[in-house]
Specification:
The chain has 15 helices and no strands. With 478 residues, it is an all-alpha fold.
Length: 478
Amino acid sequence: MAEPPQGAGPALSLRARLSFACGHFLNDACSALWFTYLLPFLHAVLGYGHGGAGALLLAGQAADGLCTPLLGFEADRARGCGRCGRRKGWHLAGTTCVLVSFPFVFSPCLACREGTPQWAAFIYYLPFIVIFQFGWAATQVSHLALIPELVSSDHEKVELTAFRYAFTVMANITVYGLTWLLLNFQTDQPDHMEHLGPQDVPVFRNLALIVVGLGAVSSLIFHLGTKEKPYPLGVLPDLEETTPLLHKEPPSPPRPLLLWKDWLLEPSFYQVAVLYMSTRLIVNLSQTYIAMYLTNSLMLSKKYIATIPLVMYVSGFLSSFLMKPVNKWIGRNLTYFVGILVVLAFASWVALATPTGAEVYGAAVLLGAGSATILVTSLSMTADLIGTNTVGPLLRGMDRGWQQTELCCSACTGFYRWVMVLVTGGIAVAAVATLCCIMVWPIRVRYRAVGLQGLSGAGTPDTGTENTEGGGQSGTVN
């Protein structure tokens, strides 16, 4: 048996790995609830206009985009708090913010009355949303940063990430399953109230409280079962935005490294950025609009806002298992193209016909599988471009997008149908155009990176096609 690398601690036990994976359950459950149900809750249940509901969601995404890089920068310089290490200390602070703020987001305005203007409700909800997004970002950053501090080998880091993703799947399925149960067993509601309305306020309030309760228990398990290594004063490692998560064995000469300003000179950076942004817009906006499309355009029962997102998520999860063999068979570019074709098939179906009955589930399977395929593939392309270099906060703000609309209710039927068509189909066409550019001009680092010593020579162009690994091999992505 091979000896463990020097300096590596003992492997984590199964209990320790499960305890770590519990630490992001609250974030994942709140994220599913936020993206899928915030808009229908504010608009259909509380009766706020499209502009007010969209503005609150936009404010939350803006707060998340600002907090994430700032917290990542600050968390690396923290010294810990009491018995909590620097990572678990930030995780505890973020979890506390989420627990105290999120239930208020999915509850009626406590100080509002029938004649209260919507701008007053906006002011009421805004602080809770900002606190929630700050806590969400703090929990996410600290939980991810714990991975290289708990384990040392690349295999163990990948394994911890897999455990983390398994709990992400559990969190999403839990949210959609609870939504279905709460909507399906409204015994005090008459049969004719099958659409969302003010009578559903207790459903979303109870859903948020259950999610917060389960998340509190999972976070407690994380803090009790995860032991962070202490950092004595004076020996805290100086982590920068160029510190990779997975360390490889360094060669004898130091590897070249790209600074943030060097990436701005790379044409491939913009190719990958546009492709990833298009992918994120398809995934996030389709998830956000799907509930409104089901209830306002298709006039389906409110129970479908639980079953259809669940079908989308499960189909995407199952299709992700096919990514590795398909990538080996036809390559990444064609795999992404196949995913885009599936998304375009969904958009064409919605544009040319009205899915009814079992057809709605078929359309959901197409959207879920196609979205998962392009998301996994675009992340792989991004990782291949970065290689041993990291781009810090440059990619963190690319997937923030929201379009507000101010429409009367009589126009909602056709509006949300065409939103689904344009969000999925229109952006998919833009993604195909970007993919064609990548196939003509393959992704590679075209400029010579600077060495770890002598950073004053940053950004010197190189007419060759050497990648950041050196050695004259092309960095082309197949």
